Amino acid sequence: MHSPERHRAAPVSHLARIEAMDVIRGVALFGVLMMNLAFAFRLPFWGIHPEEHDVRLDHVVMRVESILLSGKARTLFTILFGIGLAIFLERAKTKGRSATGLLTRRLFFLLAFGLAHVFLVWNGDILVSYAVVGFIAMGFMHQRTAVLYATIAACLVYPALATLWPALMALANTKVPGHYEQAFLVYGSGTYLDVVRFRAYEFFHLVGRGHIIFWSSELANMLVGFLIWRSGVLRSPEDYRRPLRWVASSGIAIGFGYALYRAILSELHRPSAPSAWQSFFSGTALLSFALGYGAGILLLLQRANWRRWLGAFAPLGRMAFTNYLTQSIVFSTVFYGYGFGLLGKVGYAGTAMMGIACYILQGIASTVWLRHFQFGPFEWAWRSLTYGTWQPLSRTRPQADP
Asked: Which of 59, 144, 198, 342 could form a disulfide with 186 if both were Cys (CB 3.0 to 4.6 A apart)?
């Protein structure tokens, strides 16, 4: 890497960061961790998971997590990623390099991190999807608001229409007979090299198929992030209290109501067959719930007592990239055979306790780290690669990028 020039693009001051985004990202990180532990670390990520209701506490924890967190935290995280793309492009325009070129570099290196994460650590990775869909989303950054709304609607309708097209659903199907049993054997008792080889097999044979429909919802969420940034609500949320109250109340009501409805059907052992209506409403309800959560947090941050309490989530959000990758390293070691081999041996309640303990420890570590450094180690590496020069890490020279 070469020395920076005066006119080159560089990260902006950490004082210009939007703390509300860090808080919301930190909260979303907790939900992502809990869901990953419940449905992707403790059991193989790809395949048909068996229902486990032997322990009543596990059953209760599973239902609570499914209703309140499943899909919602990931959706909120993706919306925040879209907001981050919009902020990055807007701020980069004021610098001396091509904003599009800089963002392309940023996504390219995110893709590189994601591929390393997939093959070497854990195949439940979200970074590859964010990079790929981010490249697609770049094409919409300068589009009119009406175009963004139309594209979001199309992305939400697409999975519903896919249920009416058997060939497309078959192409996206990752429920391969016998795969779960094979995955359980490899991940549960295989060596590290066995696991790496099997992850490569899953990536080339299942990941692309499983993401055909998934990426459409991710694009919708990122474009929602673009619209949120354009609205100005994050710049001055105090001016949008009434809309925020409406989004928070209606979004949470719609999302919670639908999640509870699905949970009741499952409890009554009456899971209805997939339909276009259910597919569309499921995606819409997830988006509504996530927006409701985000709006609710923005409202709470306008109250001094809540702002002090929620501020504890900001360091976790500022180091979300590092914390996310660290979670993967730790829990793949905990559950896979080359580590502690706990795959399939811990229930929902056990993983919930693990997740809470890990999150608290990461909160402490993030707070201590950020007293001395501007951003986490992986954030620093990503920024340095993006800008093509080593970024100052010490807080003595405050610089940061969205």
From this structure: 198
